[in-house]
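User: structure tokens for this one?
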Amino acid sequence: MDTMSVNVATLRSATSVAGARESARDFLDGLVPAIAAEAADTVVLVVSELVTNALRHGGGTYTLSLTAHPDSIEAAVHDRSPQAPRMRIPDLNDGTGGFGWPMVNRLARATAVTRQAAGGKTVSALLAR
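Assistant:
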């Protein structure tokens, strides 16, 4: 198998993040050869974080794309905001976040933020398979 991909478009709802996690699990479950459980958990965690950020900071809608390469999984989330994620000091007192983007960068082999000509951006993470 060279590559396999799926696109999942979702609007804001109470189950959007859960739906993205479920879509990622379904995608990963269909891979041959199968992905290791720990690697799959990492992909689902990163998808969850990228979608949460898109809903919180990216205009409320997103498109999730997952692509399997021979030695990696690419998770990409497009949203309507042109603003790139930024590293910041995590808020330990008021619950305003700051934990997710550093976590994604630690778990991923590489991350990228690409501004789109049609508007918005795509945030991608390349993860071990």
